[in-house]
Amino acid sequence: VQLQASGGGLVQAGGSLRLSCAASGLTFSSYVMGWFRQAPGKEREFVAAISWSGGSRNNADFVKDRFAISRDNSKNTVYLQMNILKPEDTAVYYCAARYKDDSAYSYWGQGTQVTVSS
């Protein structure tokens, strides 16, 4: 199984980025997909998740209306659209896959760096 995250970069505060995570080696439509992030010196934290059908989403409180998770099962890809970025959003963003009703994420991507300048 491979999860390849991309789309990170350097952006000014208030800007936008769209992260992508392409999955291979698994039945993508059977997995809940999530995004997590880890800032320097901090623990990894949950950002958002989307059900295998795409019909249900769960967001961290800090996301509010700024971020949106989506998926395209025909492309085995999950996305994270991030708008109104803030310097505190600076982190390495990871995608992860959790099989249906499992409690833990089984597979993790390598991460993509997002840096928001003030």
Architecture blueprint of SSEs:
Layout: E1 2-6, E2 9-12, E3 17-24, E4 31-38, E5 45-50, E6 57-59, E7 67-72, E8 77-82, E9 91-99, E10 107-108, E11 112-117
Parallel strand pairs: 2-11
Antiparallel strand pairs: 1-3, 3-8, 4-5, 4-9, 5-6, 7-8, 9-10, 9-11
Describe the structure.
The protein is mostly beta strands and 118 residues long. The chain is built from no helices and eleven strands. The strands form two sheets. Strands 2, 4, 5, 6, 9, 10 and 11 form a seven-stranded mixed beta sheet that branches. A four-stranded antiparallel beta sheet has the order 1-3-8-7, with no helix packed on it. A hairpin with a 6-residue loop joins strand 4 (31-38) and strand 5. The mean pLDDT is 96.
Helix content: under 10%
Form type: globular
Please report the number of helical segments: 0
Provide the gyration radius in Å: 13 Å
> What class, by secondary structure content?
mainly beta
Mean pLDDT: 96
Q: How would you sum up the major sheet?
A: 7 strands, mixed
Series of secondary-structure elements, N-terminal to C-terminal: EEEEEEEEEEE
Termini, distance in Å? 37 Å
Extract low-pLDDT stretches.
Answer: none
E-strand count: 11
State the oligomer.
single chain
Please indicate the percent range of residues in DSSP E strands (runs of 2 or more): over 45%
